[in-house]
Amino acid sequence: MGAPAEMDRCPIMATYGAPTVQFVRGQGSWLWDRDDRRYLDLLSGLAVTSLGHSHPAVADALCEQSRRLLHVSNLFGTEHGWHVAATLDRLLGGGGQVFFANSGAEANEAALKLARKFGGRGRHVVVSAYGSFHGRTLATLHATGQPAKHEAFQPLPEGFRHVAWSDLDELEASLDDSVAAVLLEPVQGEGGVNPATAEYFSGVRRLCDERGVLFMVDEVQTGLGRCGRWFAHQHFGVVPDVVTMAKSLGNGVPIGACWARAEVAAVFEPGDHATTYGGQPLATAAARAVLAVMEAERVPERATTVGAELSARLAALPEVRAVRGLGLLLAVELDVEALGVTAGQVATLLSDRGVVVNAVTPTALRLAPSLLITPDEVDLAVDAIASALADLGTAGAETT
Ligand SMILES: Cc1ncc(COP(=O)(O)O)c(C=O)c1O
Q1: 152 close to 103: Cβ distance less than 8 angstroms
Q2: How far is the C-alpha of 127 from the C-alpha of 110, rounded, in Å?
Q3: In sequence order, what DSSP letters do the residues of 368-397 get, joined into one string?
Q4: Structure confidence at residue 76 (pLDDT)
Q5: Closest Cα to residue 272, out of 30, 139, 123, 109?
Q6: Whether residue 133 lies in the annotated active site
Q7: Strand pairing partners for 194?
Q8: Any ligand 1 atom below 6 A from CB of 143
Q9: pLDDT given at position 396
């Protein structure tokens, strides 16, 4: 499926593969394509629509706000940003301040600039992990520990260093006097859904304290209940200096945020950083409604309970080698040799059968369903994945 038939050439740059499905509406855990076919969405726009599609409280907030005031410059105060920032600060344990951005990459850009200003001249290097993902702007791309993604865009901004994931010795060896901050995800999402451990994160905290280096945690994919705590690092008993978030904060409305403890936040003075849209009335109205629903629905508890059930049921399937992740951010590691197909082919078959997942590696499917997914929908999800894998297993056995 490409551009509409009336267009003789595709007007959109080819940064994504040609889409196979075009969705036109959504409700809760369900999406409908342009032929009115229904799909069970187990991906949530990559961990974005955590309250499901078209949540009425978010829709009402958007309608109401769009009729009152869509946008004013950040030169002026607006109604919702204070509340959203105060709620985020409370959920993070308090004592910090927030900068609003429009995306995950921009939230991380704010963190990188904070680290540079906090570190001062000569102390500007940010250490991150191989396998990480922090965004696609030039700086966040260099923070992203995937060298293959860097090549076409060299030279990238100076001041980034990568170490092996979950290796405290290598991290310690990298922390010389030029390092301002360590930036890590609590679960490497794009890197394959690889959770950190409490031992690793507490070791990083200790090293950062010993060296006077900031510990910055990228919760763009993991934050706001998805992993069974308000923020996934809270599983590990550490308090970071900086936390970034985005995806689920607007439930589909673009908004990101960079929180820093007050002493770090204080290095930003008027004029140091800015964005036209960050924290504008429409986006913060959505985020305020999202946070109110998330608190009322106790989404972290739901993610824990439903995540445990989904993991256990999927791990019991004969074609599944293991299920990893935290809460409702899961990777289902498939026995691709026995199945004779890649995880990408399994994702395509599931899409043909009306279930949305993605292949996070060639051998694993990623699941990030709505945190409000119902028990019936969990049953449907498990049944659909089980029958797709069983059919592939049978087909594989017949061809060998
Ligand atoms: C951990 C993490 N950081 C940053 C980003 C970049 O966010 P955005 O695509 O909103 O710029 C992503 C996107 O997937 C992410 O998963």
Answers
A1: no
A2: 16
A3: ---TT--HHHHHHHHHHHHHHHHHHHHHHH
A4: 92
A5: 109
A6: yes
A7: 188
A8: no
A9: 67
Ligand 1 pocket, residue 191 CB under 6 Å: no
Q: What is the pLDDT of residues 64-109, one digit of tens each?
A: 999 999 999 999 988 999 999 999 999 999 999 999 999 999 999 9
What pLDDT is stored for residue 8 in this prediction? 86
Ligand 1 pocket member 144 (CB < 6 A): no
Query: Which residue is associated with the tokens 């794009």?
Result: 190
Q: Which residues pair with 188 in a beta bridge?
A: 194
Q: Where are the alpha helices (DSSP H) in 98-197?
A: 104-119, 138-143, 147-150, 168-174
Omega within 30 of 0 (cis) for the link into 155: yes
Q: Is the dihedral of CA 73, 77, 83, 87 positive or negative?
A: positive
Catalytic residue flag (residue 169): no
What is the Cα–Cα distance from 32 to 354, expressed in whole angstroms? Answer: 9
Q: What does the DSSP 8-state code read for residue 163?
A: E
Q: Which of 367, 363, 357, 351 is nearest to 307 (CA)?
A: 367
- Answer yes or no: is the C-beta of 189 below 6 A from any ligand 1 atom: yes
For residue 35, how far is its CA from the centre of ligand 1 (angstroms)?
Answer: 31
The CA 250 to ligand 1 mean position distance, Å, reads: 14
**pLDDT per residue over 239-252, tens digit each?**
999 999 999 999 99
* Structural contact between residues 368 and 46, judged by C-beta atoms closer than 8 angstroms: yes
Q: Is 214 in the pocket of ligand 1 (CB under 6 A)?
A: no
Is 231 catalytic? The answer is: no
Residue 126 and residue 332: Cα distance in Å, rounded? 32
Q: How does pLDDT run across 349-365, given as a tens digit for each residue?
A: 999 999 999 999 999 99
Contact assessment for residue 15 and residue 328, using Cβ atoms and an 8 Å cutoff: no
| CA-closest candidate to residue 216, choices 242, 197, 179, 195 | 242
Cα separations in angstroms, 88 against 22, 300, 319, 380:
34, 14, 40, 34
Residues 6+ apart with CB under 8 A from 236: 186, 196, 197, 198, 200, 201, 202
Instruction: Report the alpha-carbon distance of residue 361 to residue 369 in Å, rounded.
Output: 18
Look up residue 333 and give its two tokens: 């590691």
Q: Is the CB of 218 inside a 6 Å radius of any atom of ligand 1? A: yes
Cα distance between the two ends of the chain:
33
pTM of the model: 0.97
**Gap from CA of 116 to ligand 1 centroid (Å):** 21
Report how far ligand 1's centroid is from the alpha carbon of 287 (Å). Answer: 17
Which atom of ligand 1 is the closest one to the Cα of 256? 10
The candidate with the shortest Cα–Cα distance to 240, out of 270, 257, 219, is: 219
